[in-house]
Design brief:
Blueprint lengths: L4 H22 L31 E6 L3 H12 L6 E9 L4 E8 L2 E3 H7 L12 E4 L4 E4 L2 H9 L15 H16 L1 H6 L4 H25 L16 H11 L1 H9 L10 H11 L10 H11 L15 H4 L4 H6 L9
Parallel strand pairs: 1-2
Antiparallel strand pairs: 1-5, 2-3, 3-4, 5-6
Helix pairs in contact: 2-4, 2-8, 5-7, 5-8, 7-10
Length: 336
């Protein structure tokens, strides 16, 4: 028997009010319902530490499911920094809404404790990634855009510059556009408080993806040529785009409502994503089971049941593009 209409209306009104309260705790929004990402603590861009390259002096702290931490992990892996920068992986604690260490780190059981010991202002969000200095017992930087720039200048086991001089202007331009339109764009869709806020963010997201698709196609990078987003070499722009796009079908499309156009309808982008995934060390940074478990299990306001739905295998997302198969005479289909 269906509940009476008055009860349905009352429940919907109460749930909407509770949802707004929960969303306000998850991420702030302006008066129009547009999500506004809070500033990170320890966000100052710093010079390369004097002891950069000294074994065991520094640690980069990441979380598997966080795309911002994924950027730092990628630079760490691509430049082979294992010998000079240790990697510590924290796990989410959905009940407490914080990152926790698998075993005590510098006497701390949670990232929030470490932030507090390092002088973060009260109420600061303890986020990943973080570059920590063991000798000075201090956070060096906790903002992902600055951190990947720092790691790109770090003495490395592999001479691999992700900010090539001839591409710097294009790399900087793409990074700025991607940050707003794509990296933060999927969150502005998922965390929107109003229909208008969602539609604005969703339109900008796909407009930016269209621009990337056109740029890659024009350069030949989407058709087997060796180019990348800002030029002939992989750059920080590619690093910045990959964590969002590799999560698109697995997390963002079903959870954040960004499913208007699947990525196989962007053949140059699909090919670019597959090529980037094949770079040495990249596959080891991809943890699809953790991504789905953490997003669907932890973002209660967006997914109250906590049920983790089935999704495509990662291997189907980094193989041949279905659109390319269609161009060769097959029928286009969604990856299974």
């Amino acid at each position: 028997m269906l509940p009476p209409p008055w009860l349905v209306r009352s429940a919907r009104h109460l749930w909407h009010w509770q949802w707004l309260q929960l969303m306000n705790g998850l991420g702030p929004a302006d008066a129009q319902g547009n999500y506004r990402r809070p500033p990170a603590a320890f966000a100052e861009a710093l010079a390369l530490p004097d002891d950069a390259g000294v074994a065991d002096a520094h640690v980069v702290i990441v979380g598997r499911s966080c795309p911002w931490a994924h950027r730092a992990w990628l630079v760490w892996a691509l430049r082979r920094l294992q010998a000079t920068v240790a990697l510590v992986v924290v796990e989410p604690d959905p009940r407490a809404g914080r990152w926790r260490f698998g075993e005590p780190f510098e006497g701390c059981s949670t990232l929030a404790e470490l932030y507090g010991r390092c002088g973060a202002p009260p109420g600061s969000r303890a986020t990943v990634p973080v570059l920590y200095d063991r000798r000075r017992r201090q956070v060096v930087v906790g903002e992902s855009a600055r951190l990947i720039e720092l790691l790109n200048r770090w003495p490395a086991g592999r001479d691999f510059d992700l900010d090539p001089p001839g591409q710097r202007a294009a790399t900087a331009a793409w990074r700025e556009r991607l940050q707003t339109g794509v990296n933060d764009g999927v969150y502005r869709c998922g965390f929107a408080r109003s229909q208008a806020a969602y539609e604005s963010a969703e339109a900008e997201l796909f407009a930016t993806l269209d621009a990337v698709e056109q740029a890659l196609a024009a350069s030949g990078a989407g058709a087997g040529e060796p180019g990348w987003l800002s030029g002939p070499h992989p750059s920080l722009a590619d690093v910045q785009l990959f964590p969002t796009l590799i999560r698109l079908e697995l997390v963002y499309a079903p959870l954040f409502g960004v499913s208007r156009r699947p990525l196989w309808q962007f053949p140059a982008l699909w090919h670019w994503r597959s090529r980037f995934h094949q770079l040495p060390g990249v596959a080891d940074t991809c943890c699809p089971e953790a991504w789905r478990r953490d997003y669907f299990g932890a973002l209660f306001p967006l997914h109250p049941s906590g049920i983790v739905p089935a999704g495509p295998a990662l291997a189907t997302l980094v193989g041949s593009c279905p659109m390319a198969a269609a161009d060769a005479g097959s029928q286009p289909r969604r990856p299974e």
